[in-house]
Fold each of these.
Amino acid sequence: MNAHHSIPQPAIGHSLDGKPSAANEEKPRLLIVDDVFENREILRRRFQRQGFDVTDAGGGIEALDVLEREAFDLVLLDMMMPDLSGLEVLAHIRSKHSQGSLPVIMVTAKTQSEDVVEALNHGANDYITKPVDFSIALARVVTQVERRRAELKIHQMNEALARANEALERRVADRTKDLVHVNQQLRSEIEQRERTQATITHLAHHDALTGLGNRLLFHKELGDALAHRQRHGGELAVLFIDLDGFKAINDTLGHATGDLLLKHLATRLRNTLREGDKIGRLGGDEFAIIQFGAGQPNEAAALAKRLIETIQVPFSVDGQSLVVGASIGIALAGGEYQDSAQLLRAADLAMYRAKTEGRGRFLFFETDFDRQVKERRELEVALRTAVEQDALEIHYQPQVNLQTGRISGFEALSRWQDPQRGYVPPNVFITLAEEIGLIGVIGERILKRACAEAASWPPETTVAVNLSAAQFQRGDLVSVVKEALAASGLEPGRLEVEITESIFLQGSESNLEVLSQLGALGVKISMDDFGTGYSSLSYLRSFPFHKIKIDRSFVGDLPDGQSSVAIVRAVCGLARSFGAATTAEGVETEGQLTHIRTEGCTEVQGYIFSRPVPADQISALLARSLAPST
Ligand code: C2E
Ligand code: MG
Ligand code: MG
């Protein structure tokens, strides 16, 4: 409390209530309000000397006027003034400035202690009494000014803090935004990776063409299904599907067409299944289905039937109408077949059986099939042995010309008498020979022997030899026929080859080429078993056949079978229009013979005349035939 009391310079430009303040001026600004001029003068000078910037006002109204225009650090306010009392002025000031932003120190007479209390209650910061002791006054003024400055400083710091806080919050927000962004990137990267992984897994387990599960996935699904069944029971069936006639489409129309067909087919199969059933493509034209359901075996049979029907509906591919069939094998879980490989193999075996029994059908697996597969393998060995030992024989069945009533030729039919099995029908061993690649050797031997045999028959008597489609595929058929003719000396016109419609299904173009080369040799070509299989009249137009043989299944129906009657009539008429001969196969009764004759058929072959006989009985047959009829 002395004259050297120093006042720190405030460095802030705004008062607490936001108005410009004197705090940032060089000196603290003091407003002295007193109606007595001398009082004002004394205080003004002394405060000025202490480094204050002093303004004075001679009354309340003037003071409020000055305060309107200028900012101060403190007001020294006289209590007793004629125009406005100090308390009134104080009330005005406090209506605009807080205690903190503009301190007011009341100057009172010693006797006015009640007023002092009131003034303090109305917001005066402090008071001093008259006559003024300057050192006390200075001390109180400095205290108030410093408090004000400190408050300003705190405010300033608070503001700085608030700003810093704001900045911090902004940074946190920015950082959070960054983090969210990075997080999103990470997540999308993870998702991308998961998608890639899923694609890889999908590719490993699915067939790219049809989108169905592949063999790998199917095995897994079947394994899972069987494991589930072991724990919880339930029935399930495996259906193994193999297409009939698909290879022909692939070979003749190309793989692109085949692929399209498979795609359509996959959709059809999927739509035929119940939800929950599984389907997979095992490869090529093989599909497999796991069927769940309590009603086995009836449900599996019903599904197989539905599948076969659905598959048979023509597919429209590239503007063409394509037809395939299906053979289906079914194996039921349980019994001796527990694991997925065994069960699938069982269904596969059943499918194979369905195929050999005539295609377009389904079969349930029977334990017998295993035995049959074993038997087939044994039959294969036996056939190889028979071929090695040249044990196959040929029987001949006469063909009778209906105009002359005489034998015009013989069909050569191979015979195999196995030491253990006895008679094995050619349908069985010829098919087996085709499958195991023996047909070339067998076919060549039969051709050579038949030609050699026929060379000793009366002139003009023909010999008919059956050729299988597999022989056309070997590429040496023409030279084999040439050799057989050359070796036997048989006139080419006395050799007939019998082919079936199946040669038009596989590699038909090159087969047709072979056919015309054979025709060019002078050999006659017959269409065998016409009306069965993939029968189409268009085949008849693709090559000038010498003879059409009406299959014995139609002949057997005569004369009462309506559709057979119609077919026989149509074929005879067609053949006539082509200038081809017709042979009715398998004629057994007089009724059939009469009917055939009236339809204008040119030739007959059947038990009614003779069964196929060994070569040494031919001369007797011929003698009978040539003898004048009675
Ligand atoms: P395919 O060429 O249609 O031969 C006619 C079949 O009908 C012969 O059966 C014959 O015995 C039989 N048959 C003839 N007349 C009658 C009859 O009145 N009633 C009945 N129920 N059947 C009659 P096979 O000898 O059992 O031959 C069956 C098939 O095996 C032949 O049918 C032919 O496709 C094939 N085949 C026979 N030998 C050969 C051969 O050397 N090579 C080839 N590639 N196939 C052969
Ligand atoms: Mg034949
Ligand atoms: Mg036939």
Note: The first strand starts at residue 29 and ends at 33.
Amino acid sequence: MKVCFATSECVPYAKTGGLADVSASLSRALARLGCKVKIFHPLYRSLNPKDHHLTFAEELKNLTVFIAGKPVRFNVWYKKEPGLALETYFIDCPMYFAREAIYTDDTDEDERFIFFQDAIIRVLQQLVWTPDIMHCNDWQTALLPVYLKLKYSWDRLFASTRSLLTLHNLEYQGKFSPQTIGKAGLPMEHYYPTGPFEFYGSFSFLKAGILFADLLNTVSETYAREIQTPEYGAGLDGVLRTRKDDLYGILNGIDTVAWNPRSDTLIPYRYGIKTLKFKAQNTASLRARAGLPGDGGAPLIGIVARLVHQKGFDLLPPIWSQLMELPAQWVVLGTGDREFEDFFRRAARRHPQKVAAIIEFNNELAHLITAGSDLFLMPSKYEPCGLNQMYSLNYGTVPVVRKTGGLADTVIDIDENPAKGNGFVFGDYSPAALMFTLRRALDRFPDKALWRKMMLRGMRADFSWKRSAQQYLELYQKALAK
Ligand code: ADP
């Protein structure tokens, strides 16, 4: 299976969110399953070819594409992954990519990613390489399915290529003025009220991609269903409903090397199922690090998150005084919206014995909180996949989550399903529902036998990329059968 993996972010080259992790891990896992994978990525200014040991592709020098009717020249760098059929191609065009940031508000933001997608096609043509699957990710590469069906339908090279568009976050839709359609060299005839190129008076890369891709997926099964409702659909729910038979959910995997309590180099005491007693030593280290006193066996509740509305922290202030009466301590790590940062800072000042708030981005501390906490709280309003609940489960840290997206697909409530429960789940997005469930968790905490059972279930769960990559492979096969 030959896969062209088009992405605007990939670790370690560029990252603003989960897409970067998925690009790196999924492509590698696919190559391990026998796929031949070519990743395509822009050469942003922040990405120095020397630092990453990239090779200049002589055979792809000075290629040209036409953007908004003007010729644009570019070069290509590449990197081969030793021992794997995995190559990354970097599209080098300073005019578009030598900017302050990966994404910009510049007036040619549309052109930057139109160019990127045309350049991908141009390189494939030059290499005479027919991908079986064109795997696109989010709005920045969502026009490729449209290109294959309209702009490049003349090219027999792509006659057998099928496309998959993965939706990592529906909030970002690549919305531009209708003139963008012309810049992309696409026919205006598809722009009319409610037509495929029209989205509330604009042109949206994402909407067009959703309508033209052979198959679609998002990063959890529940989120795949949720986005077909007005509450979660960000205006695209109607469009997504028209594609419901082609829309799948595949849970992201986690990096099981970096996030593994048996081998984690960022925590002071490593542990596994047979050495679970060392987890308590991480808890003691975490208390010391966070400046929290021992609390007579009360559990420690951890939070690591971007402090933004999506993550559900507006549920906390209305019940904060009640929460402070509970027998528990809190350690919060995060940055984000001022209102939440200030809320947690204030809470820590008022209750220094109970709450520690560390308002920064700190990967090492994120590991320690994951290992050292007894409970991990994620009350998200929506959560396409979520990683922290999977980390917590594998670290024997019992998650308390809202039943949405990937949280609903990975955490099973112990009272609802005593035979399989690995955490605590609430449905209503309300302070009362959160309060009720936290109380339930704290009531259960003294039952050490039950708690241990929950911990072990989480620690045994397989969230590796291997499993997810296998599901992507099956989806590729479905697309090819279309
Ligand atoms: P999202 O992509 O919506 O932020 P995820 O749960 O998918 O949510 O991934 C969040 C990732 O970012 C996790 O790896 C988490 O540990 C990390 N993270 C978030 N905030 C911080 C922080 N302040 N310090 C360290 N790591 C953080």
Note: Residues 2-253+466-481 form a domain with the Rossmann fold fold (CATH 3.40.50.2000).
